[in-house]
Structures are given as C-alpha cells and as structure tokens.
Amino acid sequence: MSHSISASTTGANEFRRDINGLRAWAVMAVVLYHFGIAGFGGGFVGVDVFFVISGFLMSGIIAKGLQRGDFSLWDFYLARARRILPALIVLAAVLLAVGWFFLMPKEYETLGGHARRTLLFASNLRYLQESGYFDDDAHEKWLLHSWSLSVEWQFYLLLPVLLLAVWRLFPGRRAMVLLQVPLLLASFGVCVALTLSEPPKAFYLLQSRAWEFLAGGLLFLFGENLRFSARTRLGLEWLGLLAIVSAVVFLDSSSLWPGWLALVPCIGALSVLLAQRGDSPWTGNAVAQWLGTRSYSIYLWHWPLVAGLAYCERLESPAWVLSALFATLLLGQLSYALIEVPARRGLHGLTPRWAAAALLLAVFPPALAAAWIRETDGFPQRLPAAVGEIEAQADNRNPRQDECLDKGAACTFGGPSIRALMVGDSHADALVTAAQAALPGSQQGIQFRAAPLCLLVFGAHDVEKKNAAPCLALKRELEAELAGVSSSLPVIVINRTSVYAMGYNEKFEDKETGRPLVFFSSPADRASPEYLEEFRRHYVASACEIARHRPLFLMRPIPEMVIDVPHAMAKTMLIGAQREVSITLADYHKRHAFVWSLQDEAREQCGARILDPLPYLCDGKVCHGSRNGIPLYADDDHLSEFGNRLLVPMFAKAFASMQDAGEALAHRREDATR
C-alpha cells in the first residue's frame, strides 16, 4: 500500500500525530541539553528540527490557502500571534516580577532589555551583539531561548509575502518551488560561510537559518507527487530518528555549528515528515503526544528554570536538576491549560481586529515595564542599602583602569621618582594602587604597563586573538625598555598565569574550561604534558631574559574564588542570609602548583624574586574571598580596591628588598663576565 505525503495534509486544521510526536523529540532534546543531562550534548539540534517542522506547516497553510483562493496575510499573521504571544507575554511579565525581588541592578537592567527585544521578536539580533548562546554568561540571560522565536517570527513575516507575490504573477506550486530552491541554496551557502568566519551570525541570523524552514516548505510542496510503501515509510522514519539521535548524542557545544553539520538533524526531520507514520510507536505514543501538544509551553518555561538553577549555583546538583525537570513539565502543563488554550479560544471568539487589539493591549504593560527597567539601570533603589553596598564592590576597581589597561597607555602611579616598572594583565591593574600605597615616599612612583589577557612571556600567542595587538605592542616596548631604562630599575611581573596555561575555571560563566588561552607552536585543546613542557620552557626563558637585564620580581597567583564574590554575597543577603566566600588552600595549590614550579625554576636559574600574597590573603587551610561580610574581590579573581590593601605590606617588603636585588644582579653580571 502506497501513501502520499499530502494525503493527510489537506488543510490548515489537519492534525498529524507524527508531527506532534516529532515536536516532543525536539523539545526534550533541547530541554535535556540545557539541563546538562549526560548523553544530550547536541540537544540544541532540537531547534533545527522545530525550524523544519515550522517551514513544512507554514508552507502548507499558505499553499492551501492560495489554492482555495481564501488566503489572507492578516489572518495568517493573527493566527501566528494567537499561538505565540499569550504564553510569551505571561513569561516576560513573570520574569520581570520575579526579577524585581531577586536580581541585582545590572542583571535586572539586562533582563529589561532582553524582555523588550523578545516581545518585539528581535532578541536574536540583541543576542548576536552579545554573542551569548555557547559563550560567556549564557545562563545570566533569562530569555536567551527566545532567539529562536524571533527567527521564526521573522520568517513568518517574509514567507507569505514572497509566496503571495509569486502566486499572483505565476499561479501554481511550480513557481513557489522555483522561488524557494534558490533561496534555500543561497541561505545554506551563507550559513556554511558564516559558520567558518563569524559563527555567532550563522547561529542567530535569519538569512543563515532560513534554509531550514525552506527545506520543510519544499518538502510540503513536493509531497503530493511522492508515494511510498509502508516498508519504505518505516525505513524513512527509522533513518530520520537515527539522524536526529546521532546529532543529539555525538555533537556538542564545541561543534562547528550550524554549518554543514546542521544537515544531519534537518535531513532527519525531513525523513520523519516524509514517512508520515501517525501510528508509529516512536512518535504516536501517548507520552510523545502529551509532550508534543505542550512543547511550546515546555520550551518557554524550561530555560528560566535552567537560568534560575545557575543563578542559585544549583545547576550541578542532580537533585535540583531533577526537580527542575519535573517543574518544567508542570509549568508546561499549567501554561498550556491556563494560558495557551484559554487565550486561543478567547481570541478566536473575537473579530480579527478586536483579537489584534487585545494582543497589543496585553503586550503593552510588560513591554513598557521592560523599557522602564532598562532606562532606570535596573532601578537599584528597590534593593536594601546593605545589598547595594556589597554589590558596589564589583565596581570598586582601579579608577584608572580604562586609561591604563583597556586603552593600554603607559601610566605613572605616584610621584616622578620611579622605583619600579610593573607589567602584566588585568591582575596587575587590580594591584598597582596597592603597590603605589606601599611606596616609601610621596615623590616615588611606579611606571605601569598592562594589556588585557596579556601573558608576559615572549613567543606566546593569544588563541582567540582578541587582544593580540595590544599585548604584542606591550612586549615589544618591554624589550626596548629593558635595553634603555636604568639597570637599577626593578621589574614586577603580575599575571593570571594559570588561566593561560590551563584555561578558565569560573563557575558563574560559560567559558570553556580546561583549554589553554595561549600557544607557542600550535593551539592546544587541553593542557597536555607536552603543552605544559613547552609552556615551561618559554616562561622560564622569558623570565631569565628579563632577569638578565633587571632585578625581577614574579608574583605568585592570586587565589581564584571560582564564583563572583560580591555578586554571590549580595544575592545571599537579598534573601535574608549572610555568606562568606573562601576556597581551601588545597584547592589553591591544585590550581596553581604548575605556576609555582615555573616561578621556583626561574628563581633558581636566574635569581628572580618571589612576591607571595598567600600570607596576607590566607590563613590556616583557607584563602578568603571576603572578610567580616565585605568582599575582597571585584569578581572571582580580581581583588577590589578594598581587598588589594591587604597586599600593601607585601609590596612594602618588595620595595625594601629592591636594593639588595639590584646588587645581586650586579654580582651575577660580574660572575658571568669572569
């Protein structure tokens, strides 16, 4: 028995159990991926499956309406708005309400901006500017998942206009096909090209995603001429599901996405649609039907729960994740039963104009509130004063940071009589005012040069190349200054060296952990023994090159708290509790033992001197991120202007020993010339 794909797709009101079941597969792939469930590293492909389904259904609605002669752009847009807006409006309103009580000003301001863009179906463009799906701080974006709704809505705006224009000129499906095929090929080409050159654009922009919708649309338009036996349809379904499952299991956030790889889940979705097996045990069962019917609401509410777990530092707790998964299904059911269905029925009972007016009236309050929150910088006045004081430590940084770090200017801290040259990265910038405070006299000063993410090791290259030029310029100027500045002037090098060798370790951001930030011969995916040995050689050689010309002081790594200290403390206080932040000394040494060994080797080989902050920041078995309820850090690894004062005695001892260091260098030079 043969079966036509168009046989049961004769109108906009047709219900296909296989499509509903495929929605279930797609939404659960996305949900389980976002909750970090093992085995679902590529679950983000569920969105691509949704795009294919959407293109298939929308093309069907438009084509059938044009064939009947009753297609209306107004009715099409209104139907989409009735489907999408009610639950989305409620979600935005709930998040804005909850954020009032639990979010810090910057977070609340960001949420306001994101909510406004979400309700305008332009959030994908905002997130493109922030480049934030696989990148930094994704879990701090409570409406990040709305990017796909924005892309989908933008497609809805354009597709019917194009198809209607073509139909009026050349009635018939053939013209529709001839329009969509080149558009699909062009969009796919853009997708592949941008994935290689600018991945965020490939991910977020309609022009690089349209081919997925168009693929579904072309399947519908070709469908009425296709006939398959029951055995063939079974094979197509198995092939499609296997492709989708393979993508979910074998892809992950490090995959070059979307690009060519996106063909795998899209072809899988097309195969399942082509099979049209409404009685399939895989898509037609009761569980799949229940999930599929509620897939939109489940999708809407799951990500705020993921972000909420991350906000509360519970995303790695199996018990909390399991509870949040259950809450996702519960909220999906409640949203479907109490928002989606009643809103759809109520709006269907109104005339089109009144339905549109009702939707606009419902959108207006949360959109206005979101804009107000954005304009008032998150309305910090709503927070208790004590919470605001703690959160303010995040901004208690070097007041000359913009000038001396971000812009890379050569700066002098203190008086005109220069006692030392301090060089490094943002960790040097965070400590230079403490060194200034330790100077023996008001006329004495520090010459300071730093650049963001700049490891002061000659021959090291930035993997991401974001700060390659300023760092390279700094190293070149350092080499020139070593030859031109008085030989008695010591050099103090302060770097977050561990992060360059072994990657990030922050828990509050979505930075890729364990991947070195610099390379010497070729980039490394991990800190392998071979890589670390290469790092060691270059580090010691660079230190000894500096020490050959100047007295050299290398500072031990600052303890890294892993979490954003003022932010974590302020959040805890907001719910009426107190919190002190610290790490164990054992964890410190586990993170930084490699760097200590490098510095020890530089001390033994070429007389480098060591500045050790641990006696001032740690006691017993603990290194402190806060003391007496006050953060010592501006984030997770940079001491604040308050915290860096603890290191003034360390720098004072360094300045007191600099004359001895100069004499020791002179003796080494004499020994070298004998």
Automatic annotation (TrEMBL):
GO biological process: lipopolysaccharide biosynthetic process
Record's GO cellular component terms: membrane
Gene Ontology MF: a single term: acyltransferase activity, transferring groups other than amino-acyl groups
InterPro entries reported in the protein's UniProt record: Acyl_transf_3_dom, Acyltransferase_3, SGNH
Keywords (A to Z) from UniProt: Membrane, Transmembrane, Transmembrane helix
The SGNH domain, residue ranges: 405-653
TM region positions: 21-38, 44-63, 84-103, 153-170, 177-196, 202-222, 234-251, 257-275, 319-339, 354-373
Location of the Acyltransferase domain: 18-333
Identification of the protein by name: Peptidoglycan/LPS O-acetylase OafA/YrhL
Organism for this UniProt entry: Azotobacter chroococcum
